[in-house]
Write a structure and sequence with these properties.
heterodimer, A: alpha/beta, Peroxisomal Thiolase, Chain A, domain 1, twelve-stranded mixed beta sheet, two-stranded antiparallel ribbon, 35% helix, globular, B: alpha/beta, 2 domains, 11 helices, 10 strands
Chain lengths: 433, 340
């Protein structure tokens, strides 16, 4: 029973009432930079950019024609427990998600028994789910409506396929798992929120291990939306924190994480990649699409995350910023960092990896968390490679060139439409707390 | 499994609803208990929420262009919160978490905006696009309330609202917040109606919202007594029936006088498993969808709110709600009067 109230007590299904340390034992990603950690680490470490013409919907009438489009691998992950029919119906977002999950699960090395010994909670973030399929459904239905000719061939599969929860079910079933699913749609903070909620789920003893992450595929509606807002850079290359920044570039991708309680990971002798130690979430009620100019909610999430991780700002070595490259977002985030770090500001390294792959919306928080883990593992900083003239508000150490740095604690910021804000903190794992 | 002991119980301290029967719970209950045959007067097999009464919506710049789903959601949420709690929140005396549940979101603005993109992207409206984002309604709600805490939009099937009750209980028990507002909403549009009818040709699609406000209390008037685990419904009637039976078994025996509020339609294959699983229910039962239509994510929320109304008006001492989603989860919840 998930919850039961009895005489003078509340019972929630828990494994333990003691707080657990939470560690990452597997993560995987796919972006326009490449498939998997090796290709992405190489690209981000060197400050490469990976933007190309959008190839699978019409952008000829848009102001912008490029994005961080993923070159999909020729084959899907092997040994998936999905029927041929279901595989044939997978949408682009699901394919991205499955590739990332395969890598994460392979690294975590959960045995079949460990995957099935109890329900596997899944926390996912996405802003658009299977929007591409929804668009196809709409076009087909609209044509049917206008012509009056009944033709619903393929429509049920499109409806079923575009629902985010269906994509989550596919992920679990593809790798032989079953469990409760929670899909967060908090716009650009979705991935960060999903990982944060998954972290708390394990920390508070509701599960020994969970799967979490975020994903989004490019879609015509969303591309048209950001273009209508004139939020896309017409140069095709976003320049976060640059004095001459003129907008963001869209991208697509996915990242998936295996989180475990430290006790569970040690018991099965799992290699530990890092510890996740802090999460903050807050809502900016200033405006539907614009952040508070002083970054109030961002300040709140960074402060909360540090309190939970029991660290001071000067102990954070690197921030993977939200850094979209839009005029308002970057200055609000910069202001929030200054207010949060105070005199420590100048010593904190900050970059935006959106310079390399664009803004992945619901997938951004997860992919950027994965980049943080790769940087933490290799002790390097991913540069904001497209930026040449830092804006005057950048009083922090804006990383513009590839650089090595010993990293102990890293932070990932995600701030979204509607004021959804999230911050995550990862640190090198040490048995000593 | 260990269990945590705490002195407080979980109270459903406030609730609200918007439905085709009107902009309040009174309308919902009049239809539910009075047997208003709303479906019979809907030849197109769709039901819509009537225009709001004058003064029903708060004055807020956020609502100038807000979609119907945002309006439904805010109206129900404000009723669930009540004026005193809204004031306490605005004065900083309460930490509020908000969980919004949707399946389709703002279909009307999505369809309109995408049509504009297809027609001529240079003319697509930058005002409409932000309203198409799943969490736009939740953002407007937070702005109206002045709430800066957790505000999470969850996309799930039509049982998601009940799953989110459990998430809310956890947040209260873990002391993340003092109160948790859980809302579900959907809006009617020909696209979402057509989608739903691919599963059940004869279903009546509908729109609206419902909300509950949860807090801890030693002596709640209405107590949230149990929420089951989610069970995967599978694809067929038999799978769904099995999942519901598992949830029902986990919930345990209800009192003989308990009222069952289920999600069965009059017709259609998606209800067959639910009908079979509850076929031996000995007591009274209410089929809200047969009165108000199927409003996807809002339907299970209507069921919970209808139960709260029955308990508050002493029309029942205990209610069991069966929440059967299409492709993600099946859950049951039990609510009861605190004085029993």
């Amino acid at each position: 029973m998930a919850f039961l109230s009895q005489q003078n007590k509340i019972s929630l299904s828990r494994i333990t009432t003691q707080e657990q340390r939470v560690v990452v034992t597997g993560h995987g990603l796919i972006t326009s930079m490449g498939k998997g950690k090796a290709e992405n680490a190489e690209g981000f470490r060197m400050g490469k950019t990976a933007f190309r013409p959008v190839s699978f919907f019409d952008v000829t009438r848009q102001r912008v024609g490029t994005a961080g489009e993923v070159v999909l691998p020729e084959s899907l992950p092997r040994n998936m427990e999905l029927s041929k029919r279901r595989i044939a119906r997978l949408d682009r977002g699901s394919v991205l998600l499955l590739h990332a999950a395969e890598e994460a699960l392979h690294q975590a090395g959960w045995s079949e028994e460990e995957k099935r010994e109890s329900p596997m909670p899944l926390f996912l973030g996405t802003s658009a789910g299977g929007m591409g399929l929804a668009e196809k459904f709409f076009v087909h239905a609209n044509a049917e409506r206008e012509s009056g000719n009944r033709n619903r061939r393929g429509q049920l599969a499109r409806v079923e396929g575009y629902q985010s929860q269906s994509q989550a079910v596919n992920l679990l079933q593809a790798f032989g798992m079953e469990g409760p699913i929670r899909v967060t749609a908090n716009a650009c903070a979705s991935g960060g929120n999903a990982i944060g909620q998954a972290f708390r789920h394990v920390k508070r003893g509701y599960a020994s291990r969970v799967l979490c992450g975020g994903y989004d595929a490019l879609s015509q509606l969303v591309f048209g939306g950001f273009d209508s807002l004139q939020a896309l850079t017409t140069s095709g290359l976003p320049r976060p924190f640059d004095a001459n920044r003129d907008g963001l570039a869209l991208g697509e991708g996915a990242a998936v994480f295996c989180l475990e309680s430290l006790g569970y990971a040690i018991a099965r002798d799992s290699p530990i990649i890092a510890e996740i130690s802090g999460y903050g979430c807050a809502t900016d009620v200033h405006h539907l699409t614009q952040p508070h100019p002083e970054g109030d909610a961002a300040l709140s999430t960074m402060t909360q995350a540090c309190q939970e991780a029991e660290i001071r700002p000067d102990e954070v070595d690197y921030i993977n910023s939200h850094g979209t490259g839009t005029p308002r977002n970057d200055v609000a985030e910069g202001r929030a960092i200054q207010r949060w770090a105070g005199p420590a500001t100048s010593g904190i390294s900050v970059s935006s990896t959106k310079a390399g792959i664009g803004h992945l919306l619901g997938g951004a928080g997860a992919v950027e968390a994965s980049i943080c883990l790769m940087a933490l593992a290799g002790n390097w900083l991913p540069p904001t490679a497209t930026t040449s003239t830092p804006d005057e508000f950048c009083t922090f150490d804006l990383v513009l060139e590839p650089r090595d740095k010993t990293l102990e604690v890293v932070m990932s910021n995600s701030f979204g439409f509607g004021g959804a804000n999230a911050t995550l903190i990862f640190r090198q794992f040490s048995k000593k707390q | 499994m260990r269990k945590q002991r705490q002195a407080d119980k979980i109270a459903i301290a406030g609730w609200g609803a918007v439905s085709p029967a009107g902009w309040d719970c009174a309308g919902l209950m009049k239809a539910a208990l009075g047997g208003d045959d709303m479906l019979a007067v809907s030849p197109e097999r769709t039901l819509s929420v009537p225009p709001p009464p004058d003064g029903r919506m708060p004055r807020s710049p956020r609502l100038r262009r807000a979609s119907p789903i945002s309006r439904f959601l805010i109206a129900a949420a404000l009723d669930a919160m009540g004026d005193e709690r809204v004031q306490a929140l605005k004065s900083g005396d309460t930490r509020l978490d908000i969980i919004v549940n949707v399946l389709n979101g703002s279909t009307s603005y999505c369809a309109r905006f995408f049509s504009e993109v297809l027609n001529d992207p240079s003319m697509a409206s930058p005002i409409i696009f932000p309203e198409t984002v799943f969490n736009a309604p939740a953002s407007h709600l937070a702005a109206v309330l002045g709430s800066t805490g957790l505000n999470e939009t969850i996309v799930g099937d039509s049982a998601q609202f009940v799953a989110s009750l459990e998430a809310g209980i956890r947040r209260l028990t873990d002391r993340d917040c003092d109160g948790c507002l859980i809302v579900a909403a959907e809006e009617q549009h020909w696209v979402s109606s057509r989608e739903r009818k691919l599963y059940d040709r004869d279903v009546v699609t509908s729109e609206g919202s419902a909300a509950v406000y949860l807090e801890k209390s030693p002596a709640p008037e209405i107590e949230l007594a149990a929420v089951t685990d989610p069970f995967f419904p599978g694809g067929g009637k038999g799978d769904r029936e099995t999942a519901i039976r598992k949830a029902r078994a986990q919930l345990g025996n209800a009192s003989p006088e308990a009222v069952l509020i289920d999600g069965c339609h009059q017709f259609g294959p998606t209800s067959d498993g639910e009908k079979a699983a509850w076929s031996d229910w000995p007591g009274r039962r209410i089929h809200l969808k047969q009165i108000l239509g199927d409003s996807m994510a809002a339907s299970s929320a209507w069921s919970v709110v209808a139960g709260c109304e029955m308990l508050a008006n002493h029309q029942a001492g205990e209610c069991v709600i069966s929440a059967v989603g299409g492709n993600q989860q099946v859950l049951c919840t039990r609510i009861k009067r605190g004085d029993l």
